[in-house]
Design brief:
Blueprint (H helix, E strand, L loop, with lengths): L10 H18 L4 H9 L9 H16 L6 H7 L2 H15 L5 H15 L1 H9 L5
Helix pairs in contact: 1-2, 1-3, 2-3, 4-6, 5-6, 5-7
């Protein structure tokens, strides 16, 4: 007897599941803001056309950076790899499109630019992988 074929989850469904898992990791690491941010920045949802998926991923990153005391931002940015800095800059630009979180994101942008330099901004603007 043949088993009915199960439908494969769509790319967006897999991305949503991955984002939910990242959110759990962020919540588990909130007492260690650097680990929470690194978890939030892992596996960005490049390639999706779904605004819902992009917004969900952005919310996870905002949740991670919201848990960082302002005095600790520079130290945490210092701990990020170059790739993580670029991904964070992409999320910051994406987040700046949303009005409600702008002031906090601008603080992160200024500190990240000081650490990563203008090259980080140029890589984000030139990269076709959008968030």
């Amino acid at each position: 007897s043949r088993r009915p074929q199960q439908a494969m989850p769509s790319d967006d469904e897999r991305l949503r599941a991955a984002i939910q898992e990242r959110e759990k990791q962020v919540l588990q690491h909130m007492s260690r803001p650097s680990a929470a941010l690194k978890a939030a920045l892992a596996d960005p949802p490049y390639g999706t056309e779904s605004p819902e998926v992009r917004k969900s991923s952005m919310k996870v990153v905002v949740k991670a950076i919201a848990g960082v005391p302002e005095k600790d931002i520079a130290g945490i940015v210092e701990e990020l790899s170059g790739e993580e800095q670029d991904v964070l800059m992409k999320y910051l630009y994406r987040g700046l499109e949303e009005v409600e979180a702008c002031s906090a994101l601008l603080k992160w942008h200024a500190i990240l630019t000081d650490k990563a330099g203008v090259g980080c901004i140029m890589r984000v603007l030139a990269d076709r992988n959008k968030l």
